[in-house]
């Protein structure tokens, strides 16, 4: 194990014989100057357990009946955040109309066992996909497309298409504003494309058009803009950037994952939304997630291409084996048609009128939320979004503590770490269901802000950030990582309502590459 600093002492073994059911090993206790003073909140389950629990299924000898299984699933979901009702302002999208979600669930189940792998075997898939993709193309400027499992896969395919349709002399590169979704970094990582980051305007948070253009090189295969970018909900200057990409012969992707099925309805409801779709000259592809503001069950997105040849560059075929020939439109090969059925049914169950009504309610709720947040002492809004995504920061109140306080009150408000000069902030995705609870949400934000002010800023134990920054994570075993997490109040065995302010403050103090390394380790520990 590396020693980041001689001040840090490492002691061994708190417990030689772990209790049954817990992983074995002699965890290292990691010490740092402020360790004794660090006080996470008490765990509701009693004293913190330094070990990481390994749970396995215990495959039953005899099959069990459905009622029992569903009861067990209900038990497993007890600590989950609620997916309906509007108190969770990220991850889930609720129309507030149970009958729509019911229709989707039934259609999903109906298509569940159909495999989209071979469209000649299951022509229902082709008919349904043509309809769903066609609906997205009709709303967003035309083109030809692919139904995918989500925004990340849509983006992956757009990047692959760009890479393969425009060979360059060097390593292919793409220009990505700093506010663009990490899915572009993931696609670049998987596909061997280099990323050139472009700055955004520090006041509007929109991509800096001049800097984005200046980052284009002879090896650039794709320029990315967002409509809107997720963090502050603002639409990048699509027309200008797409135009200058086209002038250089470079493709331009509009990431409308969150906004594609939202902005047109907000515009129709009266919002000012600049042109952003495939009808804008120079835009060559666009991603639109139906499992966000399309309100479809998860696993539903569409990527559109202006040119059928570009769509072909996203496809993959292989006849290089002695088995069935593989033709894949997507990254996944065998996959359930359930999400496609769910998306088809949701579009049909809501219709134009349904989406427009949801758009009106969303717009009204976003206005009220922005107005209400601006009136809370110490909070300030970030940017002036065209969308219904709202971000706010504070110079006086610790926003991570505010988020924890809201969670105690039964609301999930998503914390965002500082990055590229943008301060740490809270993100709220306003959806169709938000309006009916917007006053309650504002009340909780105001109370949580007051409570966070009262508690004062997170006091990080002395030396903790330096310790984490310098840790050799590869040399640390899972138990030692679990112990470190427990010592700052994170119970990796636990469920329920974690207090995340200390963790967020530590992450916030680290550079991005260290944040990533710690998060990957965290993931591996919770799944161990
Ligand atoms: C959600 C989102 C994505 C990624 O979508 P997933 O469906 O989570 O894979 C990409 N871009 C933006 C702007 C998003 O909001």
From TrEMBL:
GO molecular function: aromatic-L-amino-acid decarboxylase activity; pyridoxal phosphate binding; transaminase activity
UniProt keyword annotation of Lyase present: yes
Keyword Transferase attributed: yes
Region of interest (Disordered), ranges: 21-64
SUPFAM superfamilies, sorted: PLP-dependent transferases
GO biological process: carboxylic acid metabolic process
Sequence positions bearing N6-(pyridoxal phosphate)lysine: 292
Pfam families referenced in this protein's UniProt entry, alphabetically: Pyridoxal_deC
Cofactor(s) the protein requires to work: pyridoxal 5'-phosphate
Keywords: Aminotransferase, Lyase, Pyridoxal phosphate, Transferase
PANTHER family the UniProt entry points to: PTHR42735, SPHINGOSINE-1-PHOSPHATE LYASE 1
Family, as annotated: Belongs to the group II decarboxylase family. Sphingosine-1-phosphate lyase subfamily.
Protein name per UniProt: Aspartate aminotransferase family protein
Origin species: Planobispora longispora
């Amino acid at each position: 194990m590396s020693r980041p600093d001689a001040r840090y002492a490492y002691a061994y073994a708190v417990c030689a014989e772990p209790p049954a059911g817990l992983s074995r090993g002699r965890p290292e206790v990691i010490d740092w100057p402020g360790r004794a003073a660090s006080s996470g909140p008490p765990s509701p389950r009693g004293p913190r357990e330094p070990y990481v629990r390994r749970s396995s299924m215990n495959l039953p000898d005899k099959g069990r009946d459905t009622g029992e299984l569903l009861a067990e699933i209900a038990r497993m979901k007890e600590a989950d955040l609620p997916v309906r009702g509007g108190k969770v302002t990220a991850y889930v999208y609720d129309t507030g109309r149970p009958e729509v979600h019911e229709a989707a669930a039934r259609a999903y189940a109906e298509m569940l066992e159909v495999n989209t792998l071979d469209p000649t075997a299951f022509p229902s898939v082709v008919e349904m996909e043509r309809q769903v993709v066609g609906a997205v193309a009709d709303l967003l400027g035309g083109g030809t497309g692919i139904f995918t499992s989500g925004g990340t896969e849509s983006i992956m395919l757009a990047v692959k298409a760009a890479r393969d349709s425009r060979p360059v002399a060097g390593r292919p590169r793409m220009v990505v504003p700093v506010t663009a979704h990490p899915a572009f970094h993931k696609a670049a990582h998987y596909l061997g494309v280099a990323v050139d980051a472009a700055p955004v305007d520090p006041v509007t948070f929109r991509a800096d058009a001049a800097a984005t253009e200046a980052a284009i090189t002879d090896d650039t295969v794709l320029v990315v803009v967002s409509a809107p970018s997720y963090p502050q909900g603002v639409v990048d200057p699509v027309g200008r950037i797409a135009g200058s990409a086209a002038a250089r012969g470079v493709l331009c992707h509009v990431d409308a994952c969150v906004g594609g099925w939202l902005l047109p309805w907000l515009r129709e409801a009266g919002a000012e939304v600049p042109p952003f779709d495939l009808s804008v000259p120079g835009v060559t592809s666009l991603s639109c997630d139906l499992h966000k503001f399309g309100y479809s069950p998860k696993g539903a997105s569409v990527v559109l291409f202006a040119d059928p040849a570009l769509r072909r560059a996203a496809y993959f075929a292989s006849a290089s084996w002695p088995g069935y020939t593989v033709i894949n439109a997507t990254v996944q090969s065998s996959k359930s048609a359930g999400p496609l059925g769910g998306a088809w049914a949701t579009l049909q169950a809501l219709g134009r009128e349904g989406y427009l009504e949801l758009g009106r309610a969303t717009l009204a709720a976003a206005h009220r939320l922005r107005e209400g947040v601006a009136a809370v002492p110490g909070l300030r809004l970030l940017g002036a979004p065209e969308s219904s995504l709202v971000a706010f920061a504070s110079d006086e109140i610790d926003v991570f503590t505010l988020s924890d306080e809201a969670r105690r009150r039964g609301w999930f408000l998503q914390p965002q770490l500082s990055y590229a000069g943008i301060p740490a902030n809270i993100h709220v995705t306003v959806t169709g269901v938000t309006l009916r609870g917007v006053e309650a949400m504002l009340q909780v934000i105001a109370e949580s802000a007051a409570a966070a002010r009262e508690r004062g800023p997170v006091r990080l134990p002395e030396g903790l950030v330096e310790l984490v920054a310098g840790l050799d994570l590869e040399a640390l075993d899972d138990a030692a990582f679990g112990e470190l997490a427990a010592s700052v109040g994170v119970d990796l065995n636990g469920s329920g309502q974690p207090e995340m302010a200390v963790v967020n403050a530590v992450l916030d103090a680290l550079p991005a590459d260290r944040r990533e390394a710690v998060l990957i380790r965290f993931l591996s520990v919770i799944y161990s």
